[in-house]
Design brief:
Layout (H helix, E strand, L loop, with lengths): L1 H17 L6 H21 L1 E3 L6 E3 L1 H4 L4 H7 L2 H21 L4 H32 L4 H12 L1 H13 L1 H4 L5 H16 L9 H18 L6 H21 L22 H16 L1 H7 L3 H12 L1 H19 L16 H25 L20 H4 L18
Length: 407
């Protein structure tokens, strides 16, 4: 064990030295926390059962609605869009200053997003075809594909907002927030068509994205605006849930009349404002924590494979569920219907197993997220990918951010 600790300490020091001195490490920490929140949230509130001879998706929130606060902790997409808007706005401003054309900038940026997608799509096309040829029911295949490919909607929205950065970087968040409110009034108050809600897929996530762009312009240099976001967002969310008829859960619940997330509602956007305010308030403590080499190395290395972790976490859970069927069709916390606290306790015990399989997927597919080789030297061993996106401590020119997102 001491040898492992020594090797990790050496690696952490090398990653720390390879990070440019002016890098805002708190931004990377917020992105890492947002990704981990989504992963853990899905693992905790998504279940596959074997009823009626087919795998079916369900959620413990269906029968245990008192678990809704779990969704408040792990539904962290607003923070990811906040960071995305911040980094994209900074990156585009820097590209313009260097004379980089918009087309080159957006191709480079979207390439980093979509390179890892091809692998997960291709694998599941093959798996789905094999299951159908092997006699699996259409309901089972549909359930699996829905879970495996559900992260792709996020990437499509994120990619669209990234491509639109020059148009929306200086847009006030008030305008998309007003669109979300208007759409909800139309749908829920005036009997408008439910399909109108899909306008909020763009407008809803544009709110934290434009907040991130405002952050890049220095709008949150003081704490007061962030405190207003946190307090106002929390108060508005509570009012909408208590008196506005919105569900308490900030994620979708199978069978529920209204989903706060699919598409985003005014309650979800208000909740996102509170999350963004909190994220902006903890920047300084995070920055201090990231000065510790071992802490920073974990965040930096996670960011290097953020999209791989995000795209494969559902596949990892489903792989464990499928392998479990070889042992039994009713393993507690894995195949059983989530109806009690016992299921929650059993599911918590499965989380390390999901993480272990995700580590295997990470090892197999992270190469698709790795930037193309550079002339710059690489950090040896497990840190070789870090050198693709950072430079040595002697070279202080702008470097790519961990996770393939150029600052």
């Amino acid at each position: 064990m001491s040898e492992v600790r020594d090797r990790w300490a050496t690696l952490a020091e090398r990653v720390d030295r390879a990070t440019p001195a002016g890098r805002d490490r708190a931004v990377d920490a917020l992105r890492a926390f947002a990704i981990l929140g989504v992963v853990l949230g899905h693992w905790l509130v998504t279940a596959l059962t074997t009823g009626d001879g087919a795998l079916q998706g369900t959620s413990p929130l269906v029968r245990m609605p008192w678990l809704a606060p779990v969704s408040w902790v792990f539904q962290t997409l607003a923070v990811f869009f906040l960071v995305g808007g911040h980094v994209a706005a900074q990156g585009y401003a820097s590209a313009r200053a260097r004379g980089v054309a918009y087309g080159d900038w957006v191709r480079q940026r979207l390439g980093r997003l979509f390179r890892p997608v091809a692998a997960v799509v291709a694998l599941w096309v093959v798996v789905a075809g094999g299951l159908l040829l092997g006699g699996a029911g259409g309901e089972t295949v549909e359930t699996l594909l829905t879970l495996a490919w559900s992260p792709l909607w996020f990437l499509l929205v994120f990619a669209a907002l990234t491509a639109a950065t020059p148009l929306v970087a200086r847009l006030s968040p008030v305008w998309p927030l007003a669109v979300v409110a208007g759409v909800d009034v139309w749908r829920f108050g005036l009997g408008g068509p439910q399909w109108a809600g899909w306008v909020n897929v763009a407008a809803g996530w544009l709110v934290p994205y434009t907040l991130g762009a405002a952050w890049a312009r220095g709008a949150f240099a003081r704490r007061r605006p962030a405190l207003l976001l946190l307090g106002g967002g929390a108060a508005a969310t509570a009012a909408l849930v208590l008196w506005g008829g919105y569900p308490a859960s900030m994620v979708g619940v199978p069978g529920a009349a209204i989903s706060n997330l699919n598409p985003p509602t005014l309650a979800a956007v208000a909740f996102g404002l509170a999350q963004c305010g909190l994220a902006l308030l903890v920047r300084e403590p995070l920055a201090r924590a990231m000065r510790r080499p071992r802490t920073w190395a974990k965040v930096a290395l996670l960011n290097l494979s953020a999209m791989t972790v995000f795209l494969w976490h559902q596949t990892s859970m489903m792989a464990v569920t499928a392998l479990g069927l070889l042992v039994s069709t009713d393993l507690p916390g894995l195949h059983t219907v989530p109806v009690s606290v016992g299921w929650i306790a059993a599911r918590l015990l499965w989380l390390p197993v999901f993480a272990g399989v995700l580590a295997v997927c990470w090892a197999a597919f992270r190469v698709h997220e790795r930037p193309r080789p550079r002339a710059a030297g690489r950090i040896a061993g497990a840190a070789d990918t870090a050198a693709d996106t950072t430079r040595t401590s002697r070279d202080r020119r702008p470097a790519a951010a961990p996770g393939g997102f150029r600052a």
